[in-house]
Amino acid sequence: MLGGKLLRVLPRCLGKLSSPQSVTPFLVTSQQTVTSKHNSRSVHTTTGSWDLEEESIFTGDHEQLRNSLKKIIDTEINPFVDAWEDQYSFPAHTVFKTLGKSGFLGVTKPTEYGGLGLDYSYSVAVAEELGSIRCGGIPMAIGVQTDMATPALARFGSHELKEQFLQPSISGDMVACLGVSETGAGSDVASIQTTAKSDGDDLIINGGKMWTTNGMQADWMCCLAITEDGPSHSNKSLICVPMDTPGVVRSKKIEKIGMNCSDTAQIFFEDVRVPKSFVIGEMGKGFTYQMLQFQEERLFGAAGTVKPLEIAIGATIEYTRERKIFGKSILDNQVVHFRLAELQTEIEALRSLLYRATGLYIKGHDVTNLASMCKLKAGRLGREVCDACLQYWGGMGYTKETIISRYFRDFRLLSIGGGADEVMLSIISKYMGTLPRIHPKK
Ligand SMILES: Cc1cc2nc3c(=O)[nH]c(=O)nc-3n(C[C@H](O)[C@H](O)[C@H](O)COP(=O)(O)OP(=O)(O)OC[C@H]3O[C@@H](n4cnc5c(N)ncnc54)[C@H](O)[C@@H]3O)c2cc1C
Q1: Is the entire prediction scored with pTM above 0.85?
Q2: Residue 144 in contact with residue 213, Cβ under 8 Å?
Q3: Would the CB of 31 count as within 6 Å of ligand 1?
């Protein structure tokens, strides 16, 4: 009875959100008509409208969840996005508290710890709706909290650990980050060097993490570190590390070409002492847990791409329809409307793949292969759609004044972060049986 469960939870945000929805100030007036419209039973996109029951994985409950989230985004996030982008930071604790109060940080998490206890299709619905935030940085930061730093804790962590770290992350009282990548290990996760050595009942952590999203503001890190001797796939553990522990140094905020309002940190550990009880699940299983955690990260990343790309296409249709050159609208050139039709088709293909992967995932299948395909396709499309659309905006597309240039910068990351395109291709090749085996040196 998912519906009943959801309906019990939603009134706490619906009551608060009963005020009229504010209009999101867009960067360019011509984009104002581009957002998706909602009513209770049907979905409207630039492709068309259809009844929700025709969607394979979604119901009216999903739509209710989306509508509630959209109201929060329109009133409490989007009006401030431009300012946060200019400041190269957004107040994660404030935004997460707002989302946490309404249940959006724990959609799939156990109700015992404040979650909604829903299946992963609801997380995909939320990720898609987060795409209506008018930048990539905030959805990414939220995704780290909900689908990257916490799935392993929710699944394998002890009750005490969940009370200490999961519950406040779901309520929005704590900001989480994920510490996997290092300066010398990004794509090759198995080669991380950070160690957590045993000392009585404690672990002493030394090393460092690179590219840590939310790292400057986070209260705790889900940290992958080497805890024992042995092969690289079974010598690591995932550890909850409170970021105020002595020896944790937030060394620098990394300057990037996009995702401006999301903070990305380099972090060092200098003899950081944490109790062994802060290890998630079994010692030595961290690499395996992280690989499982990546499935959700990749589905979430792909889901978060669909709506912004549709917004990009919609905004481009509006702009090119209004802009007249050589005596006609730019849009009326066949090369332009055919190209946009082509890209819209690609987005629909991504959506179908995503829903299929999600449908199988909620039925308990291992969807590593399909999730990798989703992530690959989303990364490729993020580049292709934004680049093609920006071109049709001419000089305006090259300014910071338009949403299209922000998307162009922000969505470039998707082919790199959370596993580069080539890593996805390696995984898919492995499933196809075409990845050459690396023979250890004799
Ligand atoms: C803004 C941002 C936020 C991030 N947030 C986090 C975070 O919160 N937590 C975290 O742990 N990490 C985070 N990352 C790290 C991210 O996951 C890594 O950047 C990514 O995995 C790539 O690793 P790398 O940068 O070390 O590139 P490298 O591993 O050095 O790879 C460089 C390039 O080599 C190519 N390549 C890789 N493998 C192959 C192959 N098998 N065959 C051919 N070519 C290949 C790819 O094109 C890849 O882009 C973030 C990164 C960025 C930029």
Answers
A1: yes
A2: yes
A3: no
